[in-house]
Design a protein that fits this description.
Immunoglobulin-like; elongated; 566 residues
Length: 566
Amino acid sequence: MKPNMQPNMLSTWDTCVTPLTLTHTQPNTYNKPEKPCQTQSTVMKNLQTPALLPILALTNVIVKIIASVSIHPMLTGPDMAYLRTRVVFHCIAPNSSMPVSYELMQNNSVLIATRTNLQADQPASFFLKVAATTEGLYHCRATSGGSAGVSNRIKLTVVTPASDTRLTSDPSPPVVYQGSCIILSCVVTEGSHLSYAWLFNRKEVAPSNSFFFNLTGNKLVIKQVTPEHAGNYSCIAWSRVQDANRFSGSTEVQVTVKVYISKPEIAFSITKEGDGYRGNVTCWSSRGSPPINFSLSIDDKEVGAFIATEFPAAWFSVAMVPGLDMGEARCQVKTEMQELMSDPVTLEVVPVGGDVKVEVGYLYRADSTVAATRLSCRVRGTFPYISWLFNDSVLPSETHLDSSFQPVLPYYVFTHHRRTLVLTTLGPEESGYYSCRVRDSYDRSGPWVESEAVLVQVPDRIFQFMPGGTSSPETVPKVFITTTELITAEVITIAFCCFLLLMLVVGAACVYKIFDHEQAVARINMTNSDALPLPTLSSPLEGNQADVSSTQCDVQHQNQVVEVTL
């Protein structure tokens, strides 16, 4: 049965197919089998169409996805470049079918250039001349065989090298006084992305040296200028792109630091000119930066002025007559910041005269031996010249030479403008008669006034001062002083004891007043509490007032305690 059925089925199918073909060309032939064949064809078409649509759609999606991810271009190039230089970007789409078309885009919208590459795995190069408008965000777009891809993005920054660098100061010119502030700025005509370096006396200023300098951006700030900050300053503006550095330096600017002048001092001297005399008044300050305007006033009348440009001192010549009061002189100094006056001095020269005498004092060591002898020449006169005599021979004021031409230091020294003679040793050779003679220093031909000679030798009697009345010299160290020094020490001791006693009395009085005040307040509180009993309840307002009152009392009490302590 089976072999017989198969040919029938095939013939039936063929018979059905044949009329289908004939039916299209000859619709009126074979009418009987037309309906069964048309019905079967329609059913087959309806069954195949819905099954193929999802497959076709999925295939289309897959093809599009494959086409969209098949190209992955990469862009390489610099991220920084100097102005007016050339840069190159390279774009490559590996594993892409040739040819590949490349487009370089700026800021997502501006087309810079187009390249077509016909060789596999070869990048497309884009050369650009850097201008100010070149800065921006770059990417490339590659197209191959109907597929396209977008590369990574590179931000290009245009760096302008520094030019025409100069240094400015505030204040200008850079002349400041000690303790003030100065700001130095490094300014360029053009430049971007700059860093700054500072030089002080041609040595680099380290950023860590913040004690002397404060570096902020293109500024160097010195908040409190000292004389050590004076010198030459310069700056360098520089930038770096990759491994290339560009520098631009300024010229040096000298910063001058001035010192405030101190209170002026005044002194005068006198010289003999022929038969007359001239006075020389000196005005000076111990510190101060020139230029300084000096002026001299006598009895509030200006008699001279001078501008000191090197040293803070000035000299004025005035008329002078010995024995006459020429007036009260004062010096005035003036700068753009200060104006000061000196203390007054009376321009009066007292000639040498009157009695001249010598006072002798001995200085002792702890072992009761003489350490030195001090002789003082008491004389009346403004400008005396004193000469000392030993056994009627003048003592030279300089070292002398012995027979071997070796300098020998004398056994004496002069102090206080030769008013005092100190004998460093006192033996038989140094013992003898000493005297002083005096004349006016401004008149070499003037007369001498001589004192009486006094005998100086190792004293037989010494003044021993022992504290506390101790009678045992072995247990308590001895202190030996002269009669004049003993009187001075006693006066100082008595004055100190009186001052200490006065302070104790004042302190006791203050403490007594404090305790007396506290007792009075306590009695008043007790009296008020007996007369007006406190209520058992109080409002919040009353409580606050009580707190405020107690606080004020505490403050008053603290003020009293502090006042007593001071």
